[in-house]
Design brief:
Length: about 375
């Protein structure tokens, strides 16, 4: 090998060694010197914190709301079992925490000559049984003998100590009934008024209740009173209650069970329909979609009891219903005596609420009367 070849070979070896040095993997200069490794900003830092050993509190499930609806319809001033009805009502109230007592109308008789007395009788007894509300039935519009002012209805309304309902009824052209009309859904009902509906607070819950009366063709003497379509009126009532956050809604109707079923199908949001006019019994309650439909029959034969359970969204998740024959109930002695006092007053021709109270006082039995109304 010549000297030149040796020089070239030597330089080539140096170049190979230098190239190898450049491409050889380099160690992290901090490795082995105890310095902390710089954390990757994209990595989640682990923690050595001791986990909390205290038990986590379980979420509190909302309690279901149970409501008992005590109901009557088409009693038509049949007073034979009024004392027994009172006893049954108190028994059911005593067995339930939350309850309402409601009438689906036709509390009056169709015997024209008895209208004024009948209206007073119903005002007296329904007040003292502490009804929470009623809807007007077609026979509430019957006229008294020889009067043209819906006298019996006026007598009842002005003496009623509970809301009287008619969401689809217009009294604006009736000079005798218009003074009693209040076209509102009130949360503060005033005695002696007719409302579209009202809000009843039961326990911590609010219940929306509205009333629907039969269309004009079957109202005995409508006079200047007019009636709107009941389906549209019901939709407006439900929309009102839902707009103020109420999701438990009861319709009191006097349109007949067939129309009740139509109402349940066509108007969403009604939980319970307590009906009248058909004089039929629904035992067990009819279940139409999400709506329960009930009636008790006629002439105070039965007292209805419907127990419903609402979930937190206001949907009925359970229910049970029964009809209590009034003739099987025991008679409370104070109730029986008040009925006798009223019969005496009727025989004397007393047709005003105030005069009836005066008769009780004159008879020296105010204590008996007050014991009944408590």
């Amino acid at each position: 090998m010549t000297t030149m070849q040796k020089i070239v070979t030597f330089l080539a070896a140096i170049m190979v060694a230098f190239t190898a040095f450049l491409i050889w993997p380099q160690k992290d200069q901090s490795e082995g010197f105890g310095d902390a490794e710089t954390p990757d900003p994209n990595e989640t830092a682990s923690t050595d914190a001791t986990p909390d050993d205290s038990p986590e509190s379980e979420p509190v499930e909302p309690e279901p709301f149970e409501l008992t609806l005590i109901h009557t319809n088409d009693t038509h001033t049949v007073m034979d079992n009024i004392a027994r009805r009172a006893s049954l009502i108190e028994e059911i109230r005593g067995a339930s925490t939350h309850h309402l007592l409601l009438s689906a109308g036709d509390v009056t008789s169709w015997e024209i000559g008895r209208k004024a007395q009948d209206s007073l009788a119903n005002a007296v007894f329904m007040n003292h049984l502490d009804y929470d509300g009623m809807v007007l039935g077609n026979h509430e519009f019957d006229l008294g003998e020889g009067v043209v002012d819906h006298g019996p209805l006026s007598t009842y309304v002005k003496n009623a100590a509970h809301p009287v309902l008619g969401a689809n009824v217009d009294f604006s052209q009736d000079q005798f009934l218009e003074p009693y009309a209040d076209y509102s859904y009130t949360d503060a009902p005033v005695d002696g008024r007719i409302n579209k509906g009202f809000v009843q607070t039961v326990g911590d819950e609010q219940i929306g209740i509205f009333g629907i009366t039969h269309y004009k063709e079957v109202v005995t003497v409508p006079g200047d009173v007019s009636f709107a379509d009941y389906t549209e009126a019901a939709k407006q009532a439900v929309a009102h209650f839902e707009s103020i956050g109420i999701d438990k809604i009861v319709a009191l109707t006097h349109i007949g069970v067939g129309h009740d079923r139509t109402l349940a199908k066509e108007v969403a949001g009604i939980d319970v329909i307590i009906g009248g006019h058909s004089h039929v019994t629904t035992n067990p309650p009819n279940h139409i979609g999400d709506t329960l439909v009930v009636q008790t029959g006629e002439y105070d034969t039965n007292l209805g009891e419907l127990n419903v359970v609402f979930d937190e969204a206001g949907k009925i998740v359970d229910h049970s219903g029964k009809l209590h024959p009034t003739k099987n109930a025991e008679i409370h002695p104070d109730t029986a005596r008040v009925q006798e006092l009223f019969d005496e007053a009727t025989a004397l021709g007393i047709i005003s609420y105030e005069d009836f109270i005066g008769h009780v006082i004159k008879a020296g039995e105010l204590d008996t009367y007050e014991a009944f109304i408590k």
